[in-house]
Amino acid sequence: MKTSSTRPRYRPYTPDNFHTLPQLDKISPKRIEDMKLTFRVLPFRVSNYVVDELIDWDRVPEDPVFQLTFPQPEMIPRVDFCRLRTFVRAGNERAASDIVRRIHRGMNPHPAGQMDLNVPFLGSEVLTGMQHKYDETVLFFPTQGQTCHSYCTYCFRWPQFVGLDTAFRFACSDETLLPRYITEHPEVTDVLFTGGDPLVMHAKLLRKYLSPLLEKKPGNLHSIRFGTKSLAYWPYRFTEDKDADDIIRLFEEITEAGYHLSVMAHFSHDRELSTPAVEKAMARIRSTGAQIRCQAPLIRHVNDDPGVWSAMWKRQVALGAVPYYMFMERDTGPRGYFNVPLVEAHRIFTEAYRNVSGLCRTVRGPSMSAGPGKILMDGVAEVGGEQVILLKFIQARNPDWVNRIFFAAHNPKAHWIDDLKPAFGKQQFFYEAEYIRIQENIRRRREGFAAA
Ligand SMILES: *Cc1c(COP(=O)(O)O)cnc(C)c1O
Ligand code: SF4
């Protein structure tokens, strides 16, 4: 760990300046060549803080934080990777980009067509850059918050980071829409600013998005949340950056206005909670009256170990934060590399959960953010002689489904709700017919607007 008296300055490493990484002498030339090939397929950006203070370079490539931030050659199907190498070595750039395109297609850049179903309306105006799926909470994607200080190798936004999706397609830069929408929707109590990472934005810009809410104060709005990975990837955001004081002041204004402010911090490994920089940043955020809640997906090679999760939850509580969600990894990108099956995920969760006090047990998971809702994998049991998987909605498109238990046939290989079949020989899960109707209704309403 380094300490330095000068103000730390954010410096990202990307494929363009990768060769300037001082720690490259820890990696074999062969692996460096393979990593460069990998950058043609998968996005790469890592901050100097992650490189200098988080990664244990003596343990590379297995090091979990290295796996978290450096795309690995093994993430790409072997045959495709070898072809790519052959073409690049031969200088055949055209064939190389064809292979890259093919690999991208195999990675399924549009899981479930989710985005479209959740885009809300104001009158007949489509509010791209917002999502409203669960009654209480509106998601807002500010245009300038659609990037991150470093990229997670498992990020499902990888198509936008490699330019396959126009980065701002789902983003919004009109700050007046949010208070209008919230005022017209009395069921909304929470707004969640998300991205990317909205806290990469300059404090001035963030203030532009928050000011209308702070001025208008819609009576139904209780909580403002920021989804962020900045505490893990650039904690100096809250302490040393030029606008750090400004952002802290903005947090204070939010809590002084009577809102509950929650920083939804993405922490993937307990090492991210171990540096003096993150401790200081968390204390500073907490001093504004904001709460910090922590969540992350369960990822093979990064945190598929109960010890990592229990250490993480304990550190979070020690630092005044609240463990919140353990997610299942979405079915996209190099998923074969990261996937942990549901049954194993539940075992990891349970072994970690057993070893922590009740103060850590605010955490819920493993949870799948699927089309119909957030579905909790709640265990394995034998019911009427059949081995079943217990599932439960902890968030749902129809509130009537919330907290309802249902059963799937046991399947040790299943990663996702789509891999599961209902137990007891049933044809469908209880919500499926209604979910299809809900989707049809949304589409019909949308087409109605389009025709009007
Ligand atoms: C998870 C999620 C939320 C927030 O749910 P909480 O359980 O209140 O944290 C809101 N909208 C979407 C689309 C989500 O996936
Ligand atoms: S912090 Fe979130 S949005 Fe950013 S790269 Fe990681 S998973 Fe993706």
Automatic annotation (TrEMBL):
Q: Which residues carry this modification: N6-(pyridoxal phosphate)lysine?
A: K374
User: GO terms for molecular function, please?
Assistant: 4 iron, 4 sulfur cluster binding; catalytic activity; metal ion binding
Entries under InterPro entries matching the protein = Aldolase_TIM, Lys_aminomutase/Glu_NH3_mut, rSAM, rSAM_sf
Alphabetized UniProt keyword annotations? 4Fe-4S, Iron, Iron-sulfur, Metal-binding, Pyridoxal phosphate, S-adenosyl-L-methionine
Residue ranges spanning the membrane: these are none
Q: What cofactor is needed?
A: [4Fe-4S] cluster; pyridoxal 5'-phosphate
Xref: PANTHER family: L-LYSINE 2,3-AMINOMUTASE AQ_1632-RELATED, LYSINE 2,3-AMINOMUTASE-RELATED
Query: What's this protein's family per the entry?
Result: Belongs to the radical SAM superfamily. KamA family.
Question: What name does the UniProt record give this protein?
Answer: L-lysine 2,3-aminomutase
Identify the species of origin.
Desulfobotulus alkaliphilus
